[in-house]
Design brief:
It is built from one helix and six strands, in the order αββββββ. With 153 residues, the chain is α+β, with helices and mostly antiparallel strands. The strands form two sheets. The protein has a four-stranded antiparallel beta sheet, with helices on one face. Strands 1-3 form a two-stranded antiparallel ribbon. The radius of gyration is 25 Å and the shape is elongated. The protein starts with 13 loop residues before the first helix and ends in a 12-residue tail after the last strand.
């Protein structure tokens, strides 16, 4: 029995490939804005975590050495968080030998205005806040989180 060359179908036709590429292109175009918002929010979180870690290190050093330690909030974070705006930059936070803040409670806000507004201001980005309590405790919170959330400020 002879088989025709065209009777066995293997692979994809050119039209099927064009349709698949077009669908992937549409999905990619829809995903790009979400990806950009995710990257900007990630950079904001990186900057907030870096400042939080430095504050906790200054507090631990004050307790360990029994000498007051001062940390100055930076104007920008060079690596991993380009373009992140840090409020209260230049503010000195001093921890005494018991690890308590001598300047009272301090709030430092992190945003990225070049990429959009924060969720709290009806925007798309998840902005962060680092809070130093009078007790010396340092925590990161989200100003847009609801009151029941553990990330709420």
């Amino acid at each position: 029995m002879l088989r025709s060359v065209f009777s066995v179908s293997r692979g994809f036709t050119l039209i099927e490939l064009i349709v698949a590429v077009a669908i992937m292109g549409v999905v990619a175009v829809m995903a790009v804005p979400s990806f950009q918002n995710m990257m900007a929010s990630s950079q904001i979180r990186t900057a907030a975590e870096e400042v939080s870690n430095e504050l906790q290190l200054a507090r631990a050093r004050a307790i360990a050495t029994n000498v007051s330690q001062t940390y100055t909030v930076p104007a920008a974070i060079a690596a991993g968080a380009p373009g992140v705006l840090i409020s209260n930059s230049g503010t000195d936070v001093t921890f005494n030998s018991w690890g308590r803040s001598t300047v009272g409670a301090v709030e430092v806000n992190f945003s990225k205005p070049a990429d959009g507004a924060c969720l709290a201001a009806a925007g798309q980005l998840r902005c962060m806040r680092v809070v130093v309590l009078t007790s010396g405790a340092v925590r990161i919170c989200d100003p847009a989180a609801g009151t029941g959330s553990p990330m709420a400020c």
